[in-house]
Amino acid sequence: MLKLRNRRCWTLFAVIWLCQVATLCSQEKSTRPSVAVDELVFVQAGDLPIIISAPHGGTGEVPGVSERTGAGLATGPSGFFTGRDGGTEELAMEVVEAIKKRFGKSPYVVVSKVHRKYMDPNRPPDISFEDAKMKPYYEHYHDHLSKFDREVTDRFKAGVLIDLHGQGTSKETVFRGTKNGLTVTHLRETFGEAAHIGTKSLFGLLSARGWKVHPSPHHEKEQSGFTGGYIVQSYGSHKSRPIDAIQLEFGAEYRVAGKRAKTAEVLTDALVEYAGLYLQVQVPAELKTSGTSKPRLKVAVFVDEGVSSTAKLFKALESDTSLVASKVSATDIRDGKLDEYLVLIHPGGSARSQGKALGEEGRMKVREFVRSGHGMVGICAGAYLACSDNDQRLRILDAKVIDREHWNRGFGNVDISITSLGHEILALEKGRTEVYYHQGPLLAPAEDLQVPDYRTLARFETEIAKNNAPTGVMVGTTAIALGEFGNGRVICFSPHPEKTPGLESMLLQGIHWAGGKKMSGPSSQ
Length: 525
Known about the structure:
This protein has 525 residues and is α/β, with parallel strands linked by helices.
């Protein structure tokens, strides 16, 4: 009887044990990833103090995992969101390949291939995922970021983490996210504030290469919602290690399929210069010019009250791949937005209306822009605006307008003769050429003692004298003038080369001169 009782006890114990094991196995199975972790989180060790991270571009499905609902969480750019940053996974891999090509070595890489509806690596673990089966993917991502953070510190003593994202606020803009400088504390403390907000900062280098970046000017506050998420806040140099973390929020123009390769090339070109300045990493001589993108001349075109059609102007500007042009308003100028450009163009239209739109503050901003070493190009009304014979003008070109009373003398083609200096600056072969004229100023020296004398690049050889304008006045007056103001350069066109088929290059040459070296030699008429 006792033996039977013991046998029953052991049987009952075995059943309970088997049930517990089955339960544990079931629990383990329920939290086990249905897709291998390394299939959905790409990691790669590197040989450079550069870490590339991309948490939101994945498309990978995870069978058996419910989508996140975000119950009780705030929504928005820095809150709960399940949409992909389209193209950023692919962009990250393009950047990796571009870096390998230019540096001859590989960066460290962590890229999520998981769709954001299952997991968001750019959030703390308690809100990154809702299904326990996603925990291994999240840990794999951050374990490797942490590992690479330590490894770069040990090997190189300093580094940079570039966290790639996409945004839909402005398709032409790339937003900077550093918690307003916090996550690049090591960079700022070691090299000064200019390394973060100056022309040789990463965003300064990108701006010089033609990107539209924010903040601009770079010292201003970063855009709310794009100031830097969990990743840069967790691995930035305000923590214990000297890894400066920068979040880049790309507009669609930078991450669509046809433009990702160019984006990667330009970003890498900027990183080459950045790494040489702040990471003591030099590109091998044989790779220095491989695939490089020369910084493009950044040109601001005033488009506001008093400006007529600029379609042909922008068409001419777009034909020159060595420059990039953007529109600026009077408000932009008053707000200091000219700081990111090298040349300002004031197009045709009404000089009076343009000057009024700028206001006294805006005119002073333009004067200081040129005085500090930048360039100004005036076309027709813009040439009127640059003159020194009216207090409502910019007073940056020592010129006055002849026969201002008959400014509306008409329009049509006229002949101009090019001076020897004009041949040099404008790269023209002909000594005389025909150009379209539309009531531009007839210029002569104003003898303003506060402004250096201008030089003549071209003179009118024929005239238009309609609307009761007297004849014999236009011929011999200056058609194209070039001058200095402070450390800056001014070039003014009375006629319209951008509206003259075959003469667009004349304007482009003038723009490049305005954005180039300060001229030397004695002033002459």
